[in-house]
Design brief:
25% helix, alpha+beta, five-stranded mixed beta sheet, Alpha-Beta Plaits
Length: 93
């Protein structure tokens, strides 16, 4: 299967609504590796890598987010490969 790696920036009401925890849960459900973290500008950054269809499903979910989130935009950049070794999926602080 084809693999895919993306970097996404999610904007809107995405901090303080458990966005990172829910993203971790979704990524683990789909078997996607990577991480999620808050950025100083109140957006959320996601690095995700795995089977292309599973990464796409995670990106689709990012556009909706958890119940308390209000996502206004998801900016996705496809990467050639992760620039670090990814093990599982984690919330970064």
């Amino acid at each position: 299967m084809a693999t895919k790696t993306i970097r996404a920036i999610v904007t809107g009401r995405v901090q303080g609504v458990f966005f990172r925890a829910y993203t971790e849960e979704e990524a683990l459900k789909w078997g996607v590796k990577g991480w999620v973290r808050n950025l100083p500008d109140r957006s959320v950054e996601v690095l995700a890598s795995g089977e292309a269809d599973r990464v796409d499903r995670l990106v689709d979910w990012l556009a909706i987010g958890p119940p308390l989130a209000q996502v206004s935009r998801v900016q996705v950049e496809e990467l050639a490969a992760p620039d670090e070794e990814l093990r599982g999926f984690q919330v970064r602080y």
